[in-house]
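Readers of this paper often ask what the protein records in our data store actually look like. An entry from our holdings is shown next, in its original layout:
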Amino acid sequence: MKEIEEKCLKTLLKIPESIYEQMKDGRIPEIEIATRTKQNIEFDEQSEVWVYGDRKSVRSAKSVKGAYQLLRMAYVIGFLKDQLHNNKSSTLRELYYISENWGIAKFNEQPESDRLIEDLEIITYFQREHFHIRPEEDGATVVGPIRIREETRRGFREIHCQEDVGEGGYQIPVNVDKIEFLDHDAKFVIAIETGGMRDRLIENGFDEKFNAIIVHLKGQPARSTRRLLRR
């Protein structure tokens, strides 16, 4: 297990440990989580992204709904613990179906399990990729004058996204944290929604003539594509 995954797991396990300690002390367990409202969204100048502010809401076992939320969170953390220990991964969809074996803790619909993963991201300050949760959709492709280093199952490899790829380009992996930008000669990045337009630009040598990095979004961009573009 990598160092960041160990830190992630340690942070995750603090949640059920806190619930247990509260119950041990005879208290009704609860957890705090950032409130998901427009009023609680702030722009982080350093990272240049929108983040949640300091406003908190409480998930408590005082209500039946709150008790179910804490129970499901404990089951999900147990599942993520096993997944990290075994170096396995799963999709959001798979997590929903796996919960069918959790008895009263199972999710009634996938949006419930999706929101819980989002809750864990907010509480722990780790991304779902660190939990080994991956999206269903494929990443987009990149063509252009940029050299990257990617961590693969067989070690690291360096790829130039013009010289070392075919017309299909370099496919963005699910976890873009495994990519390091080494150098580039690009003047700008252009994101293209449709495959036809992207292919036309490649055929006409647009990336070489204008030193452009062409990113094919494949319609609505996947999470990994959005994260890569932000970098």
